[in-house]
Amino acid sequence: MIENALLEVDNLKKYFPIYKGIFRKKVGDVKAVDNISFYIKEGETLGLVGESGCGKSTTGRTILRLLDANEGKVYYKGKDVLNASKDEMMKLRREMQIVFQDPYSSLNPRMTVSQIVGESLVEHGLYKKGKKLDDYITEVIVSCGLAKYHLNRYPHEFSGGQRQRIGVARALALNPSFIVADEPVSALDVSIQSQIINLLTDLQKDRGLSYLFISHDLGVVKYISHRVGVMYLGSLVEMANKKDLFNDPKHPYTQALLSAIPVPNPKTKIKRIILEGDIPSPANPPSGCKFHTRCIYAKDICKEEIPEFRNLGGEHFVACHFAK
């Protein structure tokens, strides 16, 4: 166990079976999350970045048991999440919540804001329908930047940013300690993105929240995160505190991602690192280092041996044979 760790993930795997033929014979697996380990401390935000399809969202959903893991362990405050009973998991749901990527499809169009935010409170037996529940719901939505008159409106009556605020309010209603923010601003305009990011930051300061912040926008991750993990094809290739990762990236894939960040100065010249070739299929990943098919530094050892996810010092972890 890691000291002061709120959440620990140990060798987590999530595979999706592939079936073919009339008799639906299993012919393989899509290795969406392939043996990853990390931790999140109390009051900390861990950013998780990578290309689309690398397994970021699947990681978040598997941690919360919205998807069943194939192997591995997840500990929340020392409690084994993946082997928790139904009653134990019900209690954990109050402390572990999620904000989904799409602020529209994640909200029931037939329910008002009051019903959406209050549903979990009634289900967990924290409140009964009445004035106390209504007052608490009002308090929660106001803290998320909405107004009391929004309570009886439906999701289609709001803008994208307001709908995401409803999603945040729903997650906060149970007063959790840990929230998986699954690309919460990717579907929003840039100006609205900053409002939601600032809201999440303020709520973290006020409530001591911990986040697993999943995104492919490195600019947003740099702003909100304390530490950053980089995923490629279901595996973690690098993890470090924000300053070390952005100033001194060790893995070739991380270096390529950071070189793609636009700089708001037309006079600044950036040496872009262009990755050649397509991303391999997670159903048939390359042997050895999964990145060797696109890496300009690849040697024979990269094709044969899986690199160890090792600590280079100062909790800067890298999975690369040649990282120094």
UniProtKB/TrEMBL annotation:
Question: Which superkingdom?
Answer: Bacteria
Provide one Gene Ontology biological process annotation. Answer: transmembrane transport
Q: Does the keyword Iron apply?
A: no
Regions crossing the membrane: none
Supply the alphabetized keyword list: ATP-binding, Nucleotide-binding, Transport
Looking at the record, the residues that make up the ABC transporter domain are 7-258
GO MF terms listed in the record are: ATP binding; ATP hydrolysis activity
Listed Pfam families: ABC_tran (PF00005), oligo_HPY (PF08352)
Q: Which PANTHER family match?
A: ABC TRANSPORTER, ATP-BINDING PROTEIN, TRANSPORT ATP-BINDING PROTEIN
Which family is this protein grouped under?
Belongs to the ABC transporter superfamily.
Q: What is this protein called?
A: ATP-binding cassette domain-containing protein
| Taxonomic source organism | Acidilutibacter cellobiosedens
